[in-house]
Amino acid sequence: MSFKQIKELRQAGQLTDALELAQNELNAQPDNIWNKRAIAWVFYDFVKQHENPAQYDQFLHWLQELEKLDLPEDEKMIFDNLSWQIGKMVFAMVKDENPDTGKIWKIFQTIKSFHFTKPSEAYSFIYSAFHKALKENFHFIEFANWWNFDNFLPENYEKEKLQNGNEIMAMVEQAYIAYSKHLLPQNIQGHYEFNREKATEFLPKLTNVVDNYPKFQYPAYFKAKLLLALGDKDNLLGALLPFARKKRNDFWVWDILSEAFSHNKEKVIACYCKALSCYSPPEMLVGVRQKLAGLFVEKSMYNEAKTEIVQILEIKKANGHKIPNTVNNWQNSSWYSNAVDLNNNSAFYRNYLSEADEILFHDTLQTLVFVEFVNRDRSILNFIDGEFRTGFFKYDRFLKEVRTGDVLKVRFQQGNDNGRYQVFTAFKHTDNNFKNNFLKEVEGTVKIKEGANFGFVNDIYMHPTLVVKYKLSNGMNFKGQAVKSFNKEKKEWGWKIL
């Protein structure tokens, strides 16, 4: 009967009376599980009653009273209910202008022995609250290990939609990013700290997320950062490429990619040139400029080096930042006074952009295509591939000059029904056997009907512009080339004079 009485007192809001009765019953029979349950729910009501930061001490006190009960592992209902109060309290504390993470950590130390249902919505709510509070705190790893990332629910892998319609990153992606950040080398008061064992242990879990959830953007980046910290440059490129392709317009992606090619200075230069071609605030590019300047000095490219150094000096002075010793030493070198400031190295960067794209998409299949027509005004070319499929794409990003009859190696990104293609890379290529499928020598008599402005040679069509260009008339002899062409009206392949 006492359990029922205690419940009735709780429901009536008479918590002091309920607590007194429950405590008397527990004192009389301390090992009786019903007595423990009864007082536990009273403690729960007190926790709920003090669920705001202004009443933190009382909130923590009643949590600690629950902890002292040492309820058995199968007593999960009360803790699952309590999860919501704990999470709400932590979220409320984080809203303070200067959240007291020490107090939040005390809450965690108290609840870590509680028996939550795992996985569950309530348990995920616990994670969400403490993640927000501790993601930048050195205690985060300890909390995350206790919570255990194996307990995420399927919905935790999806983006969360806010009431205003905006979406935020999936909880799981946030979790793996925060964990990875804490594993990366830290410079604490000039002392380098890096736990290789923890990083090595976490890497397979991070790899699993990268492989199985490609919609997550940033885990691949942090995997690459951990591989770099561990000195595993052999696997760095493969880990970073999926992420780098998505974020290829961000300069820092190229800065990291360069680490995979420390043995190949030309590829390092290509990465730096691509980084400096990305749109970013000038002060953020200073580090990359200094690295590229160093390579220019090594190669005795003093004009290019001085050009980068002048920009570094301007940015540092504009922001009131200290000039690095290395840059000061370069300024005092004899070569510096004799070198010419080129104003910018943009032309040099452009020469390496195609090589940078090659790095990014080197494992994407290349396709040979034949250039069937070029519209120079719009920088668009029409192509035919080895399967006699046609399409077109803009070429000016990849090629300065292209002509009908050229053979290209192309990495296609995507196409659409009207034949327009997006391209990752395009390079000129020499392959006469492939070219001969689309080009042939033609010699014969020109046939132009009276009143017509076009003609034929051996039944091969000749466009009016060619008739004018070569000043042809009926009966003249013509020697030239014909190119494979698709007749859209007849829906058949043929030839036309080039």
Summarize the structure.
This protein is of the alpha+beta class.
Q: What are the key terms here?
A:
498 residues, alpha+beta, OB fold (Dihydrolipoamide Acetyltransferase, E2P), 4 domains, 5-stranded antiparallel β-sheet
How would you describe what is shown here?
This protein has 498 residues and is of the alpha+beta class. It folds into four domains: 2-230; 260-355, no CATH class; 364-435, OB fold (Dihydrolipoamide Acetyltransferase, E2P), CATH 2.40.50; 439-497, Beta Barrel (OB fold (Dihydrolipoamide Acetyltransferase, E2P)). Helix content is 50%, strand content 16%. The chain contains 21 helices and 14 strands. It has a five-stranded antiparallel β-sheet. The protein has a five-stranded antiparallel β-sheet with strand order 12-11-10-13-14. Strands 1-2 form a two-stranded antiparallel ribbon. Helix 11 (218-230) packs antiparallel against helix 12, helix 14 crosses helix 19 and helix 15 (286-298) runs antiparallel to helix 16. The chain is elongated, with a radius of gyration of 35 Å. The N and C termini lie far apart (102 Å). The model has no long low-confidence stretch (mean pLDDT 89).
